[in-house]
Amino acid sequence: MKDSSVKNDYIEFWLENGIMFSRFREGVEVDLERMKGVVRLREEISEGKNQYWLYDLSNVKNITKEARDYADQYGQNCLHAVAVLVNSHITKFIYNTYIKLKKPIMPFLVFTNKEKALAWLLEVKEQS
C-alpha cells in the first residue's frame, strides 16, 4: 500500500513502508529536462528528508549524457542509499563498474532483480 505518491507524464514516485520507489512509463527517453523533472519530483516526495530509493530504470529506452551529468551533479540530495533496477545484466555490469570508479557519496548499487534490490536497501537501512 502506497503511503503517498507524486507523478508526471513519464515517472511516478511513491513511499511505501519507509522506502521510496519510482517507475518510468514504458519506452521513456530521459533528456535533461526530464531528468530535472525527476529530481524535482523526488525532492517533492522526500519533503527534505533523506530516503532509501528503489529507482526502477527497466522501462527507460535511453538516458542522454546531459541527463546523466545533471543527475550526478544535482540528483544526490535527500538520499541515504539507492538501488537501481535495470533489465539487462550487461547494463548492470556497466553501471556497477562505473559506480566503483566514481565512488558515490552514499551506498549505490544496480540490480536486475527487484526483490534483491529491495532486500539490499532494507539491509542498508537496518545497518544505519
Account of the 3D structure:
The chain is of the alpha/beta class and 128 residues long. It has a single domain, classed as Transcription Regulator spoIIAA. Helix content is 41%, strand content 31%. It contains 4 helices and 8 strands. The chain has a 6-stranded mixed β-sheet, with helices on both faces. The protein has a two-stranded parallel sheet with strand order 4-6. A hairpin with a 2-residue loop joins β2 and β3. α1 runs parallel beside α2. It is globular and about 35 Å long. The model has no long low-confidence stretch (mean pLDDT 92). It holds the Pfam family DUF7793. This is DUF7793 domain-containing protein. It comes from Flavobacterium commune.
Q: Beta-strand level of the residues, as a percent range?
A: 25-35%
| SS elements, strand count | 8
- Distance from N terminus to C terminus (CA atoms, Å) equals 24 Å
Pattern of helices and strands: EEEEHEEHEHEH
Number of helices: 4
CATH superfamily placement: STAS domain
CATH architecture: 2-Layer Sandwich
User: What is the helix fraction of residues, given as a range?
Assistant: 40-55%
Number of domains: 1
| Rg measurement, Å | 14 Å
Structural class: alpha/beta
Find the CATH topology.
Answer: Transcription Regulator spoIIAA
C-alpha geometry:
globular
Question: Strands across the major sheet, in which order?
Answer: 1-2-3-5-7-8
CATH top level assignment: Alpha Beta
Largest sheet: 6 strands, mixed
The average pLDDT value, as a whole number, equals: 92
Low-confidence stretches: none
